[in-house]
Amino acid sequence: MLTMYSTSWCGYCHRLKSQLDREGIAYEVVDIELQPEAAEFVMSVNGGNQTVPTVRIAPGGGGDEIVMTNPSIVQVKEALAA
């Protein structure tokens, strides 16, 4: 499961969403401005900053969770393939 933490005004988030759509990669978007607990998670993995897009990939086969900040579509695809 891929979750993208985002805001409505983030240009990098809009770009990554478009790329994910083009690649046919399913994802859930969580707006950190509407969900304080999501903002807390983003800050916990970004040195206290609310940096978006932050992508969280939950393990599918018992592996480790992957969290990336402002990744490229190539990085996301590589993480999903791992």
Automatic annotation (TrEMBL):
InterPro entries: GlrX_actino, Glutaredoxin, Grx-like_ET, Thioredoxin-like_sf, Thioredoxin_CS
Domain of life: Bacteria
GO molecular function, one term: electron transfer activity
Ranges of residues in domain Glutaredoxin: 3-57
PROSITE patterns per UniProt: GLUTAREDOXIN_2 (PS51354), THIOREDOXIN_1 (PS00194)
A GO BP annotation: cell redox homeostasis
Short name of one Pfam family: Glutaredoxin
Stored NCBIfam families: GlrX_actino
Protein's UniProt name: Mycoredoxin
Biological source species: Paractinoplanes brasiliensis
Source lineage: Bacteria, Bacillati, Actinomycetota, Actinomycetes, Micromonosporales
